[in-house]
Write a structure and sequence with these properties.
The complex is a heterodimer of chains A (about 325) and B (about 210).
Chain A lengths: L10 H12 L4 E4 L4 E4 L9 E8 L16 E7 L5 H11 L5 E6 L2 H18 L3 E6 L19 H14 L4 H13 L1 E7 L19 E4 L10 E4 L3 H15 L7 E8 L5 H17 L3 E8 L9 E8 L2 H8 L2 E2 L4 E2 L2
Parallel strand pairs in A: 3-4, 3-5, 5-6, 10-11
Antiparallel strand pairs in A: 1-2, 2-4, 7-8, 7-12, 8-9, 10-12, 13-14
Chain B lengths: L5 H19 L1 H11 L4 H18 L5 H15 L4 H16 L6 H19 L9 H16 L4 H18 L23 H16 L2
Helix pairs in contact in B: 1-2, 1-3, 1-4, 1-9, 2-3, 2-9, 3-4, 4-5, 5-6, 6-7, 7-8, 7-9, 8-9
The chains are: A alpha/beta (about 325), B mainly alpha (about 210).
Chain lengths: ~325, ~210
């Protein structure tokens, strides 16, 4: 294992110290509870937006705390859900009476820990908590007999759009409804060229030969559904875009936010090359790209590979997407 | 510590022994989890039970139910992932069921069943889903059978640990239907479930220490 670390056990706490040191103008960090807060939180009358999850997906979620996005993010160990104590502390700290929305990616551990936190917070202080669970990954079959689809790229777009709506002063119910609308209109698919190494494990989570790729990868180093021979970017783009397009389905005349996301170990040069392929496929399908996002926003440590997320948008969603945002991970208009 | 009841002492021994066994097997559990999960089960269980031992070092407990409930809250607070709420809820409900009860083998069996009921309420798993319940389910049945046949606590826990190990081994050919391994579909076949493995370690420890 070659990593810029001191001790595998200290990776998350030392990274949080670094976030606090790098962004004192925008963030404050509760190091004991491992919570990243927007500096000016809580904001009177504003619905509190909280997310969180395992570490190793940076900038998600701590890097999306700030104006126009999250009020707080709870950091778990690498690829491990945070614990209910953290979400309870964050929920109480950002609530000013307008209620709190929990944004949860659909993984068994995350859902269970957030559920326990919402139950405990309601019992303890009477804080009104609603939850939205993102589950946009078309690589996973959705059925009663599985854990359901994973929450991946749509989570980033949702935190931005819903954050803008909360900033406008919308009610908890309105914010939660909007969050569900975003989740319902977004789909993603990912692939990996390499595995990744969890610091505490010290070796790659799975082996992938030089000539192979994993299709349908998640963001925790869990293997995908199919292993295929490595192919040119043009073919990989089709393997990602086709199942996304047919799932919602997206059709001629639709407008989308097209999001090509790097998993942490792929250079922007390749991500833009992939975006070009994706844009051509969308053009051929008669789909208009209203807005785009290209870069490493929801990562899987140093994994090489990418995911494609399409979010079907109307004028309202585009307006909220364009609204000012000022976070370490996304910034425009502010 | 001096006036600690014999029962509190043996349940304390169980938690300490479990922590040691989970520490010794942390790399193994993580290796199992690497194959079909996200490579953190060993580290998480080790961290959680390490925190339980720290609590045992600084707190003395008058009753077994207080001890188990505190262990459960500690696991919920320290483990994370799915294992934290699952094992945490198990110890919380196990402890709650033992409050004010004479700790006969039958009562402990009912407590175990209440704890596993908590796991099912959180995780909604069924036998054959390739989860820790594939070890817990047969273990509870074997425990009850041993008690019904006149077995003492040692015999019942030994039977439970053996059934748990069989249940754990039986997860190997299964296709996962719950948890992160379910994302793999048929590629989860051929791997032993990490949760069923840690459950068996806990029950084997109970058979060594509680009787």
């Amino acid at each position: 294992m070659k990593k810029l670390i001191n001790d595998p056990a200290d990776v998350v706490s030392e990274a949080l110290l670094g976030m606090a040191a790098a962004h004192p103008d925008r963030l404050r960090v509760d190091h004991e509870n491992r919570i990243v807060y927007r500096k000016e939180a809580p904001r009177p009358g504003k619905v509190g937006l909280i997310s969180g999850g395992g570490s190793g997906h940076e900038p998600l979620h701590g890097g999306f705390v700030g104006l126009g996005m999250l009020d707080a993010a709870c950091a778990g160990e690498v690829f491990t859900s945070p614990v209910p104590d953290q979400m309870m502390a964050a929920t109480k700290a950002v609530d000013t009476g307008a209620g709190v929305l929990h944004i949860v990616k659909n993984y068994t551990g995350d859902v269970m820990n957030f559920e326990m936190a919402a139950e405990l917070a309601a019992a303890d202080t009477g804080t009104e908590v609603l939850s939205v669970v993102t589950n946009d990954d078309v690589a996973v079959q959705d059925s009663l007999y599985t854990a359901g689809r994973r929450g991946v790229g749509v989570t980033v777009l949702l935190e931005k759009i819903v954050g803008a709506a909360a900033e406008e002063g919308r009610s908890l119910q309105e914010v939660a409804d909007l969050a569900r609308k975003v989740n319902d209109n977004g789909r993603s698919m990912g692939m990996a060229l390499t595995s990744c190494t969890v610091p505490a494990a010290g070796k790659p989570t799975f082996d992938l030969a030089e000539t192979e790729m994993e299709l349908g990868i998640g963001i925790h180093g869990e293997p995908g559904r199919r292993r295929l021979p490595l192919a040119p970017a043009r073919e990989i783009a089709s393997l990602l875009v086709d199942p996304v397009l047919s799932d919602l389905p997206y059709g001629q005349g639709d407008s989308v936010i097209a999001f090509v996301n790097g998993l942490g170990g792929t250079p922007l040069l390749e991500l833009y090359l992939m975006y070009n392929e994706v844009a051509q496929l969308l053009d051929r399908a008669g789909i208009t790209v209203a807005r785009s996002l290209v870069g490493n926003y929801i990562t899987s440590l140093e994994m090489a590979g990418c995911s494609v997320t399409l979010l079907k948008v109307d004028d309202e969603l585009v307006r909220l997407w364009d609204a000012p945002v000022n976070t370490p991970g996304l910034r425009w208009g502010a | 510590m001096s006036n600690m009841s014999k029962e509190v002492e043996s349940f304390t021994d169980w938690l300490r022994d479990s922590a040691q066994v989970l520490h010794d097997n942390a790399a193994y559990l993580t290796e199992l989890d690497s194959a079909i999960g996200d490579a953190d089960h060993g580290a998480n269980m080790d961290r959680g039970f390490g925190a339980v031992v720290a609590v045992l070092d600084e707190t003395s407990f008058d009753t077994v139910d207080e001890l188990l409930k505190k262990a459960g809250m500690t696991l919920v607070s320290k483990v994370g992932g799915a294992s934290g709420p699952l094992y945490g809820t198990f110890f919380l409900r196990f402890g709650t069921a033992l409050a004010g009860v004479k700790l006969t083998p039958a009562a402990i069996g009912e407590g175990l069943r209440a704890g596993v009921g908590g796991i099912l309420a959180r995780g909604k798993a069924e036998i054959g889903d390739k989860t820790m319940y594939d070890a817990w389910g047969p273990a509870l049945d074997a425990y009850d059978t041993a008690v019904a046949g006149g077995g003492d606590l040692a015999a019942a826990l030994t039977a439970a640990a053996e059934a748990s190990a069989k249940g754990r081994d039986a997860t190997v050919p299964l296709e996962a239907r719950k948890g992160r391994a379910s994302y793999l579909g048929e590629r989860s076949v051929g791997h032993q479930d990490p949760g069923a493995t840690s459950t068996t370690l806990l029950l084997e420890s109970a058979a060594r220490t509680l009787a």
